[in-house]
Fold this sequence. Notes:
Blueprint: H1 8-15, H2 25-41, E1 43-48, H3 53-56, E2 62-64, H4 66-73, E3 80-84, H5 87-96, E4 101-103, H6 119-128, E5 134-137, H7 142-146, E6 150-152, H8 157-163, E7 168-172, H9 175-182, E8 188-191, H10 204-213, E9 218-221, H11 227-232, E10 235-236, H12 239-249, E11 253-257, H13 260-269, E12 274-276, H14 290-299, H15 308-323
Parallel strand pairs: 1-2, 1-3, 3-4, 5-6, 5-7, 7-8, 9-10, 9-11, 11-12
The protein binds 1,3-dihydroxyacetonephosphate and iron/sulfur cluster.
Amino acid sequence: MSVSLPTAASLYDRVKRVIPPIEWPAFAGDIEAILALKAKRNAVILAHNYQTPEIFHCVADIVGDSLALARKAMAVDADIIVLAGVHFMAETAKLLNPGKTVLIPDLGAGCSLADSITAADVRLMRQRYPGTPVVTYVNTSAAVKAESDVCCTSGNALAVVESLGTPRVIMLPDEYLAKNIAAQTKVEIIAWKGHCEVHERFSSADIRELREAHPGVTVLAHPECPPEVVAEADFAGSTAAISGYVGRHKPARVVLMTECSMSDNVAVEHPEVDFVRPCNLCPHMKRITLANIRAALVENRHIVTIDPNVAERARHAVERMLAI
Ligand code: 13P
Ligand code: SF4
């Protein structure tokens, strides 16, 4: 039995609030081709919340924050996974699906946090703080995960830190996430000096200016923002938690202190909410486009591989997180 695919025209209705009609013809051909290629190759597309709306709402099968993508990657029933996101997310999907082909449409889609630390750095931290468990943010390479006891995401970091039952933990590599978690727990946290190049640019002065310009605006921040930003925001949480907050509270006017596409993607679901738009673009997330997703499916590129010695230890750290 052949399954009928949605047409690009029918999908436009969904995203018309955030994609002007003049831009749509540039997307429609790639969208129809990608929908057909997914069916032909038994492929699924996993897309992070920071992907642009024509990817997030029109071709993705599974969307979410890093934690949701890792959890849902475990249950994928397809031969091919295309990861519309950054390289560490594709590696995590591969770790959890060693027998499947995992493709990333652009190998240059990195992350400033993942680039801030190496496996050798983690070994040095262990030597410096003997016996202290290492919690590693998923925004790291598989080689760094392999040196860790357990991974975390911004969605479960507090629960992971407290699950270890030790008076102190090493938490790598995001200094601000570590400090934001330290403010919520009695566990002593030893941090690294990594920063997200997108979230470190938000300041508490930005929040004060926004509140002055838009009285009553609700400010939601990602915990990769500096602690003073999180302290002045009305709520801080992972990208999924931010999206959930908007759905539950439906603030009249909101600003999301995070990557720009979040506002577009959440706005599609909540037309009644007014989104104020100062935001910062992640240049790595923006390397993924409809054109290179289409090319990935046609040319079977770029295949994500992980050294088996690294993969076994890194998988253990990710699976231990998912079990919490
Ligand atoms: P989330 O886990 O909240 O989706 O964050 C991932 C990320 O890269 C944020 O910059
Ligand atoms: Fe990395 Fe920051 Fe981009 Fe997320 S937004 S992928 S943490 S650089």
